[in-house]
Design goal:
Rossmann fold, about 30% strand, alpha+beta
C-alpha cells in the first residue's frame, strides 16, 4: 500500500498551473490556481479556483492514460485489456450522467490516468507528460482523475488515490492478476463517481 506524502498535498494545494495557447505563432500563458478540498472519498483533491461546474450537463471520456517504467511494463495487449476493464467499470458507475462522444460548451471531459512507478527510476519520471511529473515519483502507484473543459482542455479538478495496488505483469515469469485489476478498477470507478457527485451535485 502506498500513500501520498503530506508535502505532495501542500505543494499541489499551492500550485499554479500554466496552460499555453498558441495563436498566430505567439505563446500566451494563462495561469490557473487550485485549492485543496476535503473530500472523504479520495486521498487528495483539488478544484480550480475559477471552476464553474454549473454549465456542464454531460460527460465525454478519454481513454485512460497508463504509465509504466520502460523496462517493467506489461505487454501492450495487457495494457489494452487494462484500459478496457477500467473503461467498463467507469461507464458502469456513470449511469446517472449523460455520456456523449462529441465535445461541446456544456460537456465535461473526464480523464483517468494510472501511473505505476513502483519499479521506476527518476529517469522514468522525465518521460511522462510535464503536467504529471510533479506528482509521479519512483516507488509509488497513483491513480489520477481529472475533470476538464472539453473545448479548452483546461483542468478544472483533480483527485488522486493510491490505496489499491493491482498486480501487473512486469516480466515473462510474472502474470497480471486480472482479478486484482478488476477489483481496483471497480474501487476507483466508485471513487471517481463520488468525486463527480460531490462537484456536479448529482
Amino acid at each position: 500500500m502506498y500513500s501520498l506524502k503530506p508535502s505532495f498535498l501542500i505543494l499541489r494545494g499551492l500550485a499554479v498551473i500554466a496552460f499555453c495557447t498558441f495563436v498566430a505563432g505567439c505563446t500566451t500563458v494563462t495561469t490557473q490556481s487550485f485549492q485543496a478540498t476535503n473530500s472523504p472519498n479520495v486521498e487528495a483533491s483539488f478544484i480550480a479556483t475559477d471552476a464553474d461546474f454549473g454549465k456542464y450537463d454531460r460527460l465525454t471520456a478519454e481513454d485512460m492514460g497508463i504509465y509504466f517504467p520502460t523496462d517493467a511494463a506489461p505487454t501492450l495487449e495487457d495494457q489494452q485489456r487494462t484500459r478496457k476493464i477500467f473503461r467498463e467499470a467507469f461507464l458502469g458507475e456513470l449511469t446517472n450522467y449523460q455520456i456523449v462522444q462529441e465535445k461541446g460548451p456544456s460537456t465535461l471531459l473526464v480523464q483517468a490516468t494510472l501511473i505505476d512507478y513502483r519499479n521506476a527510476s527518476s529517469t522514468d519520471v522525465t518521460s511522462i507528460h510535464r503536467d504529471l511529473r510533479n506528482i509521479a515519483r519512483p516507488g509509488a502507484l497513483l491513480f489520477l482523475m481529472e475533470l476538464k473543459d472539453s473545448e479548452s482542455g483546461i483542468t478544472l479538478a483533480r483527485a488522486a488515490d493510491s490505496a489499491t495496488a493491482p498486480s501487473f505483469s512486469t516480466s515473462s515469469d510474472h502474470y497480471t492478476d486480472w482479478k486484482s485489476v478488476e477489483s481496483s478498477a471497480d474501487r476507483w470507478a466508485s471513487l471517481f463517481r463520488q468525486f463527480l457527485d460531490e462537484n456536479l451535485n448529482k
